[in-house]
Design goal:
It is built from 15 helices and no strands. The chain is mainly alpha-helical. It is found in: Cell membrane.
Length: 394
């Protein structure tokens, strides 16, 4: 799907400035969504809740993201996609203000619910919009650039959040994100070209996609892969504190290492992910599940924990590019409907991962949480196999 100029949809052949604006939005979304991971302990104490309960601040955003991802592309109807993205970014801004000023747990959850709407809506449209901003041959590179925002957030949000949260309190960390999102909102207004809706979207299109066995199988495999990742990642701080014995300085260093490794993952994905994506689909589950198993076995060593987290971080950012490239190539005839379903599946897996991990943590131990993550990764790898069954028949 080439990025061509039409009478109703005028833009340059490749709108890289708009891609960068979307990359910043990704960075802010990831930072906003997963900041509670690095602040879980102080947030729980400040809100008089358990760590398992506070972990549900991630799951509630996932719950609303699921609903939004399915509804936004249909509810937006024939609205220009530029203004839908601008509106969603404004909603993220409102969410951050609510979370930062939350007087109690209920208001925190309300703010997280609004963030979930933004997350679901943005991701449902993101790949389809990227496919319109650049020529088809540049889509993997543009996706890697957009997901570079994920690497930036992973590299700096968690360690900076952990460090600043210890110095200034967790609320100050969320307030610090507010002006950055305001700048991003202005950048959207300037850089995004007009993106008129391309026909009405409805639920029938999504049902039609689910009737395709290869897409249905890929959707389930993606859910298991992300579910495994976030069963572990949501509760990483308690593991590092309880098992590795990390204090705030070591914790921030380990989170920074994990995040910086994401830049390598983004670079590698942009360079090596091509149309032949089938052999790569099971790599995230195998590599990330193996790292989680390694943490279970020898995570008491700071050096070993750092090594496994670095490898996990590389694959974490590559995973998004791998699966979204699969989607753009396998269902290129219905990118918005496919994007809605992919985001709903991924957010459902994040929600379930946070819930499962929290239940295992509160009911058993942090070791049980990480063991659950490994089990989900193994199921994903078995389902994917060689990857050919997840591709559109020729």
């Amino acid at each position: 799907m080439a990025a061509v100029t039409t009478a109703n949809d005028r833009r340059p052949a490749a709108a890289w400035g708009a891609v960068l604006s979307m990359a910043l939005c990704v960075s802010m979304l990831i930072a906003s969504e997963f900041m509670p991971v690095s602040l879980l302990t102080p947030m729980a104490a400040g809100l008089n809740a358990t760590e398992g309960q506070t972990g549900q601040a991630i799951s509630v955003s996932g719950l609303f993201a699921i609903a939004a991802s399915v509804l936004v592309t249909t509810a937006a109807g024939r609205l220009n996609r530029k203004w839908v993205l601008v509106g969603l970014t404004a909603l993220m801004l409102a969410s951050l203000v609510l979370v930062a000023s939350a007087p109690n747990f209920a208001v925190l959850m309300l703010g997280r619910a609004l963030l979930g709407v933004c997350i679901g809506g943005f991701w449902a449209l993101a790949t389809a919009v990227i496919m319109r901003l650049v020529p088809a041959a540049d889509v993997p590179r543009a996706l890697a650039l957009m997901y570079g925002g994920q690497a930036i957030a992973a590299a700096f949000a968690a360690p900076i959040g952990s460090y600043l949260g210890d110095l200034m309190g967790w609320r100050a960390v969320f307030w610090a994100l507010v002006p950055i999102v305001a700048v991003n909102l202005a950048w959207h207004l300037i850089s995004l070209p007009s993106l008129p809706a391309r026909g009405e979207q409805d639920v029938r299109g999504m049902i039609g996609l689910l009737a395709r066995p290869y897409f249905r199988r890929g959707l389930l495999a993606a859910m298991l892969s992300w579910g495994s990742a976030f069963t572990m990642f949501t509760y990483l701080r308690p593991f590092l504190e309880q098992v590795t014995g990390a204090d705030v300085a070591v914790l921030s260093t380990l989170l920074l290492l994990l995040g910086c490794a994401g830049f390598l993952g983004t670079w590698a994905a942009g360079r090596f992910v091509t149309d032949n994506v089938a052999p790569l689909l099971k790599l995230p589950a195998i590599v990330m599940g193996g790292c989680t198993l390694g943490l279970l076995l020898i995570g008491g060593s700071v050096v070993a924990a750092g090594l496994f987290l670095a490898i996990w971080g590389v694959m974490n950012t590559a995973m998004s590019v791998i699966w979204m490239t699969w989607m753009s190539r396998t269902v290129d005839d219905a990118p918005e409907a496919a994007g809605s379903l992919m985001v709903a599946a991924i957010q459902a897996s994040i929600l379930l991962g946070a819930v499962l991990g929290g239940l295992l943590l509160d009911g058993f131990s942090i070791t049980a949480t990480f063991a659950g993550s490994v089990a989900l990764a193994a199921l994903a790898a078995m389902l994917i196999g060689g990857g050919r069954s997840l591709l559109k028949p020729n």
